[in-house]
Write a structure and sequence with these properties.
The protein is α/β, with parallel strands linked by helices. The protein has 9 helices and 9 strands. It has a 9-stranded mixed sheet, sandwiched between helices.
């Protein structure tokens, strides 16, 4: 692991790191906010998964998450949204390729060689975090935005004992039913098949609802709300299958980081209530 940058922030430290990933077969970059409470011992971990085109920088620079994490004593891990590099497959479209990993394991060429973001996040990166940072890996939560909200929800439902808390901002909750998801899944996973369902939050919650209380905030003026996000399908599945979820429609807010920053304090507190620092 190589430290690229480090800054003092809110009494703690924001640091950015590169490492050679054996999972994605390329160099991966991630950021860590270590709160001041970590000086006294390991602290709980909150993963933030970003949306299309984003990197670690968006959430750390725009959302206010570090100030709230410092208040509650949570470490924040912000991985990249995909593999990157000259040798990594890419596409001219913003919603496919580098910056658009969709937190899945691709099975189709040329994507299968590098695009294994779910494996990277659940198997490889946690080992690096545990070995290099004062992180209490027995207390982990996960959140994210849009494509990252999709990733957070699916990983929580698959690994509820690892990610004990979960929340999301404007998540893609039923990718097999909306254009963003259909395009990505056909590209990475091939024509419609059973593999699609294992990365669809709505389908997962029907089979394996968790014991957690999921918090979701949605902008009422989100330009993607109807066509790409379709929260009602997921909420119906939660109601029918016993998943505890609080879904808050926030009038006037869109899909941007202005929306995320407006409600980040609530989300960090939501995780901290179960994973106290």
């Amino acid at each position: 692991m190589q430290t690229i940058s480090s800054w003092a922030a809110h009494g703690g430290t924001l640091s950015v790191h590169d490492h050679a990933s054996s999972t994605t077969n390329c160099t991966m970059r991630f950021a860590v906010y270590t709160p001041p409470q970590a000086k006294d011992g390991p602290v709980p971990v909150l993963w933030f998964l970003s949306g299309l085109t984003c990197t670690w920088a968006n959430v750390m620079e725009k959302s206010g998450i570090m100030a709230h994490a410092a208040q509650h004593g949570l470490m924040v891990i912000a991985p990249d949204t995909s593999p990157r590099g000259d040798d990594v497959a890419n596409d001219d479209a913003y919603d496919i390729g580098q910056g658009a990993g969709f937190y899945l394991t691709a099975t189709q060429a040329p994507w299968a060689e590098h695009f294994k973001m779910d494996q990277y996040l659940t198997n490889e990166l946690p080992v690096i975090i545990a070995g290099n940072f004062p992180a209490d890996m027995a207390r982990q939560g996960i959140t994210g935005h849009s494509m990252g909200g999709h990733g957070a929800l699916t990983l929580h439902l698959k690994y509820p004992e690892t990610y004990r808390t979960c929340s999301a901002f404007a998540p893609i909750v039923s990718p097999i039913r909306v254009p963003w998801g259909q395009k990505a899944f056909e590209t990475y996973l091939g024509p419609l098949n059973i593999d699609w369902e294992q990365y669809d939050t709505t389908e997962l919650v029907k089979e394996r609802p968790s014991d957690a209380h999921i918090l979701i905030d949605q902008g009422g003026a989100d330009q993607f709300l109807t066509e790409q996000l379709d929260p009602e399908t997921f909420l119906t599945a939660c109601k029918n299958h016993g998943q505890h979820v609080t879904h808050r429609m926030q009038p006037g807010y869109d899909h941007s980081y202005y929306f995320i920053a407006s409600f980040m304090a609530d989300h960090v507190a939501h995780h901290a209530s179960v994973l106290p620092g």
